Structure formats: structure tokens, C-alpha cells
# Entry
Amino acid sequence: MCAVSCVYLSCPSFNASPPLSLPASMCDYGPLGPPCYASWLVLVYVKQTNKLRVVTYATMRRRVPLPAVFIDVHRAFDSVWHEALLVKAGQAGITGNLWRWLQAFLSDRSFFIDAKGIASDPHPVRAGVPQGCVLSALLFILFLNDLTVPADCTLLKYADDMAVYPVPPPNDHKTLVKWDVACGQSLARALASITELARRWKIVFGADKTNLVVFNRTTIDPALPPLRLTGFDVAHSFSYKYLGLILQQDMRWSEQAAAVAKKISALAFLLGRLCRFDRPPSANCIHRLALATLYSVAG
# Structure
């Protein structure tokens, strides 16, 4: 029999919630132009996925492999170190009353565990941003803003999902001949740079969800050196699900198509049980379909 436990989080209350304006230096996440935060997220999502797709196709058309490491932050929102976040906020230009408000927002938080009516002593929370808070996503972006790589690599960041790959070589024969060695060295230097910053700011990456995919038209992969990130070896994978898209090594879409077809089949089965073709849908059916649409868009 499993005992059910509850975790309670206490935090200070505030009379005002001033908006947080992120600095222009956070260009990796795209401009904050649209007035709607959700619209901005959609634009950044399209930018990130399209940039990786265009670079990959352009490289493969020249029959040059493109290795890419997809990185996942372990327990993303729970890993934000409060002291480091405040330091980075000051470096990003957040000062004065807004910085002090942010400090108060993160301070004096505690949690305790309640199991079968027995509560533990409260413990202070020194890391993590509140789940479900609109501000938390922006604070997490700010926390990872200074993760950078050398100029010969590109780092894409979208919340806790990141991808790093070497900049494709110019269309020069001598450069292309040495590309198999150069791309691996560039990628190893980029991971070393990320490792150094991650250890400084106590960022933990998930070894199970961090993988190497070598996009290539041929079955012969380049001779890459051992790639390590914060102490673990990066495993090679044929495909990876990045921002909802399953990217395959050969840049075909069979796995993505199969996943979409499976979802469509499940939805068609549910629609068949909800709707009857011999009569119009009931009010309850319309209500459930509307909720399902909202949940799918929000997810």
C-alpha cells in the first residue's frame, strides 16, 4: 500500500506584481516584440525549429555530416539557484526597486511534507522558481542566458531544451575534406564551455535526455572524439524529439508521421464515441470537444 504525501510551499505575499522586462542581450530567445507572451513563445519556437531544419538540409545537400547535441536541463524550474539568479539579474541591468522586488519574490520560501496527517518541519527553499507562475519562465530564461559557446558553434535555446552544432564549413574543397575532424573538435569545445558555466552556476543536465544525432545522408558517421558534458558521456541516438518534432539522423519524417498518425487515430476513436452521425451533437459533447481543443493548444 502506497502512502500519499503532500508537499506544501509557503511564500511571501505581495501587493503589486510589476512586469519584468528582459534585456536586449537575450537575443538567443528572440525579441520581445509581440505584446502577448504566448505569441512571443510561438515566434521563438518557429525560429528555433526552422533555423535547425534549414541548416541541416543545407549541410546534407553538400553531403557533409552535421553533428548536433541536444541538451536537456534536469528538473529545469527546480534547479534555478536563487543567489545566482539575483547576480545574473543585476548583470542584465535589473537594478533598484525591481531587483529588490525580485529578491523578495525568491526569499523566505519554505516547504514541508504532510503524510497521513503527520507534517515535517519546514525547510527553506534555496533553489527553484514557482511552478505555474507567469514570471517563472522568464526567470528561467534569464538564469540560462549566459550559456554561450565558441564562435565556430551555434547554440539554440528554448526554455529547458537546447541544441548545439558546429557552424557549417564554407564551400571549399580543402575545408570540406577536414570537416570530419574539425566538426567534432568544435563540438567538444562547445560542450566544454557549457560544462564550465554549468558547474559555476550549479546547472545539472539530464544524461538520459541529452543525445548526439549526426545528420548525414550516408551511413558512415564522422570520426568524432568522445563528447562529454558535466561528467557524463553523450550517447549517440538515431533520432531525438526536439520541441515536439522528432528529428531523424537521415532527416526523414517517418517517426514524426507515425507519432502524428497515432494521435490522430486516438482522437478519431474518441470522436467516434462522442458524436453520432444520425443526430446532432449534444451540449455535453460540444463542451467536451471545446475543452479538448483548448487543452491541446495549451499543451
Remarks:
- The CA atoms of residues 274 and 284 lie 9 Å apart.
- The two ends are 33 Å apart (CA to CA).
- The first strand starts at residue 5 and ends at 10.
- DSSP finds eight helices and 13 strands in the chain.
